[in-house]
Amino acid sequence: MKKIWIILTTLAVSFIAMASVTTVSAAKPNYIITTDATYPPFDFQDSNNQYTGIDQEILKTIAKREGFTYTLKPMSFNAATQSVTSGQADGIIAGMSITDERKEVFDFGTPYYKSGIAWAVKKGSNIKSLSDLKGKTVALKTGTAGADYALSIQKQYGFKVTYFNDSDTLYNDVVNDNAQATFGDLPVLQYSIKNGTKLKVMNANSPYESGWYGFAVKKGQNKQLLASFNKGYASIKKDGTYDKIIKKYLGAPASDFTGKKSDNNSVLGILKANNGAFMRGLWQTLLLTILGIILASIWGVILGVMGVSQNSALRGLSTTLIYIFRGLPLMVLAFFIYIGLPGVIGTKIPAFTAGLITLILNEGAYTGAFVRGGFEAVDKGQMEAARSLGFTYNRSMRKVIMPQGLKIMVPSFINQFIITLKDTSILSAIGILELTQTGTLIVSRNSQGFRVWAIVAVIYLVVITLLTWLSNWVEKRTRA
User: Fold this and answer.
1) CATH code for the domain of 384
2) Which pTM value belongs to this model?
């Protein structure tokens, strides 16, 4: 058992060192900018897995002209806005509508795009007007102007609403007839339809409530960044660069950015076109899993040992920590650490670090519970025999109880390892570009949800199978 723990700890230190080297060697950006990269044609990944779109082209051009650098952090729209308000990011550009409510917490730059709200239904739907939505379900994307407008007319037309965090899942909900309509920004809906989504816009010639998009920073902060954006925007507007960017994305067919049609029509084609993205996502997933497993196991063993301590205070502390972190949903804990905590401590926490801490606390709590149970499962006569031989309590635990208890726990450890791997997918919510988030970005570009998620599912199954084989091998070695 000692050899196993030494190997696991060495691996953990090695991975952390590799991550540290990568962080140190990378050039430090002046700003961290966040976005929702599932919002084409404004924000998405192209066929080369580069972040692009109207927003990204505007930002890239302005940054070059104004002499500042930035690191882009893609995540869901709600998480992106909260990252800015919590101080985790310096600014956001994500097709974000300027509203009076948002002006209370954000300072906006010069409005850069005027859009309107449209509504769409499944092709071939019998719904012809808003009145036909009575009693039906409307799918909305959280935090968007389309959602706000739909809610403002909900009572008038008597429809129900359901919410989604990404556009592709939302559109497929309508296509699959789980919802009967959706509201959103007109150019976003039109782009998705050009890319093959089987929807029909009902008011393309007369969008509702035209509004402006804006680049935003936290109210009262990052004034220099905002001033640079405004100056750069005025420059690209004056010399015609802005108009070229708009024409590039709204005038060209979606295939110019999604890749060849043949690449999206087969699993092999998608794999070939996105093999680099899948590999990077898999590596991030494996890194999180390995570090999470090792560190959560160490933390869990500590909690388990505390749980069987003779000291009542340590037992109480162990029980409390296990209760708290096992009781919190993983996503809630991730948001608390990544978005909530920085606002209290005044220090930014990298998404990867926040995700790793989340795994350690959550998975470690579950590990601590079964470790404590494993120690308690050892026959009480073993402790009595050890004490009768003159061993102290601590020595009896270390030499007699723990070795037997750890062998009892091996199947539980194996199960927890697999759970940790699957739980890494939840961390995509805070912008970690692991396998699930990679799939989301690819789907937002090519709208091939079934094929992409089938690929992601197979990758997970392969990795889980290999992890299970490895764990079973370790179990046999420990029982030998």
Assistant:
1) 1.10.3720.10
2) 0.75
